[in-house]
Amino acid sequence: xxxxxxxxxxxxxxxxxxxxxxxxxxxxxxxxxxxxxxxxxxxxxxxxxxxxxxxxxxxxxxxxxxxxxxxxxxxxxxxxxxxxxxxxxxxxxxxxxxxxxxxxxxxxxxxxxxxxxxxxxxxxxxxxxxxxxxxxxxxxxxxxxxxxxxxxxxxxxxxxxxxxxxxxxxxxxxxxxxxxxxxxxxxxxxxxxxxxxxxxxxxxxxxxxxxxxxxxxxxxxxxxxxxxxxxxxxxxxxxxxxxxxxxxxxxxxxxxxxxxxxxxxxxxxxxxxxxxxxxxxxxxxxxxxxxxxxxxxxxxxxxxxxxxxxxxxxxxxxxxxxxxxxxxxxxxxxxxxxxxxxxxxxxxxxxxxxxxxxxxxxxxxxxxxxxxxxxxxxxxxxxxxx
Length: 386
Fold this sequence. Notes:
Layout (H helix, E strand, L loop, with lengths): L1 H7 L5 H8 L4 H9 L6 H10 L2 H17 L13 E13 L8 E5 L2 E14 L5 E9 L12 H15 L5 E5 L6 H9 L3 E5 L6 H6 L10 E7 L2 E15 L3 E14 L2 E11 L8 H9 L5 H10 L13 H22 L2 H9 L5 H14 L9 H5 L1
Parallel strand pairs: 1-5, 5-6
Antiparallel strand pairs: 1-3, 2-3, 3-4, 6-10, 7-8, 8-9, 9-10
């Protein structure tokens, strides 16, 4: 709980949390809020060096299983059935010298960089929730090996973990242009999952050749909307039953979006490969569902790196196991804080003051806990953590 609080309060470093812990009434108020003592972060670090990473990871997945059982997330399903799970990798930290035996390496211009990468599967929603379902570390094995670990290999392990934890959950995998390849199609097929993968120019050449003519056709569906002063026009095209390696029938979707505001005009193109069967009624929902893949980049990794969580900070410079545990605790805290920040109390505050930022609210909260004696915030933290 002490390690979780490091990220709940967005302290940014163990040293900063220890400073707050020793200031004012912070430790006393912490005990009043959570019914437990606040340990020194050096003690927390000692524990996280030896606590098996798999233990915290399993608790995180059990937490998400509980949310699914409570049906709290059902309203976010695609087509009323499928939960959108975005899969992507991100860098955690890099070094000029080898950090541990699991480091990945990259050599450019006679310089070798050592780094750690992690592959995430996050549940994403249209209103900004980005909740970690499972984590798979991209890491080199101990001893000698022929090839480095990579994102595609890690996806195989991540998929097995997801299927084991959520065997009956109807999932739609969202992924970037790295994933349109045969083994990814096979994994989704074997697990009875749907998928919407970004199709980049040059990917799946045999499929691209069959799409030359359909791309010239008139739109099969369209949509018009106004958003923050922008006039948005979307044109949708699709093509079904495209043969790939004689083993798979793939479907193609395209959305061309034009945004106009006074003299400004922006045009974007989005293309996807999917095993959904698109038609005029659902192609809009499918394409807009595919675009939620960006949530793992923005509301997920970017928020955790730049939004006071300091994902790339070296909370432990020595222990690889501790680094994994800090990362998992960060995912816990980010999930809890999303529930708080999107809850009624914070929403009402921000409605009253449109210029109020989440960053400033958390700063004020920490000041309140440090300087005000016997503060009880049962209606903010307790419901989210419980």
